[in-house]
Amino acid sequence: MHEHELETLLKETLTRSVETHRDRIADLEYEIIEELPESRPAPRWRWGLVGAGAVAVAAVFALGLWVGWNFSGAPCHDPQVLCLVYPNAKSVSLASQFTLWEPIPMNGPDRSGVWWIRLPDDIKPGRYEYGFIVDGERWVYDPRASEFVHTFDDKINSVLYIAPRGEQP
Amino acid sequence: MGAGELELIQRALHGDVDAWGEIVRRYKDAVFGIALGILGNPADAEDAAHDAFIRAYEGLHTFHLEKRFSTWIFAVTANVCKNKLRRERLFAPLKHLSRLTKGSDPAKQLAQQERTQIIREAIDQLKPAYKMPLVLRYYADLDYKEIAEALGLPEGTVKTRLHRAKSELKHILEQKGVTGHA
Amino acid sequence: MRWLMGILLTLGLLGGLGDAFAQPTPQDVYKCFAELGVSDLQTLKAGFDKGFSDKRITPDTALRLCQRLKQSSAPISLREGVLQIIARALLEELPVTMLIDKTFEGLTKGVPLDVINDDLLERKMTLSEVKTLLASKGITISLTIRFGPVTLTLTLEAVDTAITEAAGALEDYVRGGGKLDDPTAIKSAVQLRLARNPLIPQTLTAYIEQAVSAAEWAQIAQNIATRLKK
User: Is the full-model pTM beyond 0.80?
Assistant: First the structure.
């Protein structure tokens, strides 16, 4: 049997199997949606020394992050400020349409490894794509953005909207 | 409103279950097909598809937006199937493989059914390490690189396993008298 | 004598400062193109002259683009390729904001210039198709729209921004894996983008919503997908 014939048979067999039984998954998306809120992982408490220790470490870490985030130098709650958590970076820059993609060095890192930059006061209302450049070479999108777009195939840009003064974006 | 895949994933990450429902709708055929190809049993494949989408939703925050979503969800599916096989030691042949359709030559249909059944059984005889790349290649149309990524294997290993899978299949089919002619 | 020296010194200083604050001229741009080593300066001049005249591009932006291309080590043919695509777009009276933006973005991200060139060519085709579509509905500069109680005369900025945003929305939709067999979703994506840009009057957005069908937007999306082989 030629290789090409075998490949054709394989594709046909596998496809035919699915067509025959497709009715089994007719309502799959509705079943999944119904189940989803219950399926969110509940905390799993593993009693025993190792489990208890891991939970304690995680709690302290989470507390530290919360304290760091809220009491660090980075004013990340300000909507005019862009932030990126990247403790191991040596440098982080912002690159965006409103700077003609010229990298602008960001401030930081603060104690929690947060880098930040304030948007220019004179930035015009509109839609802007942006991202961060870590250590001069790695492109990173802003995970806190509300919108993302694909660009140049394998890259992701974050999107922000600047509203006219007095309006919500 | 329909939306681009990236937007759906982003909405799902923010807890929009309807957005995830749309993702399920778009990918359920492919995920079910892969599970059916690997597990060989429609009931198990249905369970596996269901588990794969739940697990993918729970782990969605680990998906890197730059990557292809299809490769990632297929990897989750393959993992679910692998675990199922390990737990249940499942090598059952496919039941109720196909049904006669109306308006065609019954004899030809039967011959085709039998042939499909034999090929299906031959696939089921392969060990999981060979079956999984085979299904990802010939059902999901992934290339070597994508299969490697989905299964967490080097590309060279994928090529080797595919080659061996096809050799074994040919051998089994020839023993059962299935040739390349229709 | 001292007062004369003072005047001359002041004039000299002002002259120097004046140079520091002078805006680039088209000649500065063409000088940069020549220094870059382009092979077809004539077409570039024709395109960019028209762009400067139509106010679709400023000499400042063109010069920054040229200087940025000078920094690249890619072959001159590829660097000139970018400029030629933009020049031709300007000759065709297309908005070039998206093309310039994508060039700077690609260069910053280290995208190879041949990839940038391909991307610009593809996007230019989309801009052209969108412009043709809107023009077929009468949406051109100086058009006066009477939409209900509102009368609006379209400016270059409004029309060009509408073309750019519609083209951008379609490109993002297709590149993001949007379904091509869902014209309603495609039209929604375009309308949402138009509505969110404050440079596009709401009246124009509403007019486009009524004038352009979902199927017409979907056709352009399909063309993009074909070009990108999605």
Answer: no
